[in-house]
Amino acid sequence: MKNIISKVILGSFVVGAVGMANAQKIDAKAKKILDDVTANYNSKKNSYFKFSFGSGLNGQVNKTEPGIYYTAGDKYKLKIMDTEQIFDGNKIYNINADDMEVTIAKPNGNSAMFSPINYLTTYRNEYNVTYNGKKTVNGVNTDFIKLTPVKANGIQFVYIFVDSAKKQMVKLEQHGNNKDVAVIAIKEYKENQDLDPNMFVFDKNKFKNYVITEL
User: Fold this and answer.
1) Domain containing 146 — which CATH number?
2) How many domains would you assign to the chain?
3) CB atoms within 10 A of CB 179
4) How does pLDDT run across 158-206, given as a tens digit for each residue?
5) Using CB atoms within 10 A of its CB, is residue 63 exposed (0-12), middle (13-18) or buried (19+)?
6) Which DSSP symbol is given to 10?
7) 53-68 pLDDT per residue, tens
8) Strand runs (DSSP E) across the chain, as ranges?
9) Signal peptide location in the record (predicted)?
10) How many whole angstroms separate alpha carbon 5 and alpha carbon 182?
11) Residues β-bridged to residue 56
């Protein structure tokens, strides 16, 4: 499980840069739903998700771990198990408490940073999008949307389940070409909280005994 978490934090949710030369198809109904959710999140001062992260093979999740995610504007903080990721608007800080390592890097145009709502923006250029009807997820009547890569990027497809009444994501499933599956199920959602002003700041002084590598 630790290896899977590390891959996700460091970019297993990677989306290759794709040009519009490919015949991208986006269903109008699905687009409206995703755009409404995006606009809802963007209208908030900040958002908080408590979620479970599941992973497995052949479409079956066999292990889950809790996670938390804070976001404000383009900044975010993500924690799963003993791994934490901070994006301060400029650099990504991957912190592994178990290995006592920190990796610092700038995001680049060939990858998309991991976040529970990452696909709400990347779908616009990089996926074919279809509306697959209604499906009950964790007791919620959701709209079921399928994303299929326009260009090969290691992902077979992504499922997004949305509570359209609240304009919130309920669940996301990523299925890889190698049969890996990763699932984020949002358990709790809060918005416009009074956050610590240093929430998205990496303080080197707190990691004096860590190996820090800047790429």
Assistant:
1) 2.50.20.10
2) 1
3) 12
4) 899 999 999 999 999 888 888 888 888 999 999 999 999 999 999 999 9
5) exposed
6) I
7) 888 888 788 888 899 9
8) 47-57, 60-72, 75-80, 83-87, 92-96, 101-105, 127-137, 140-149, 155-163, 168-176, 180-191, 211-214
9) 1-23
10) 10
11) 61, 181
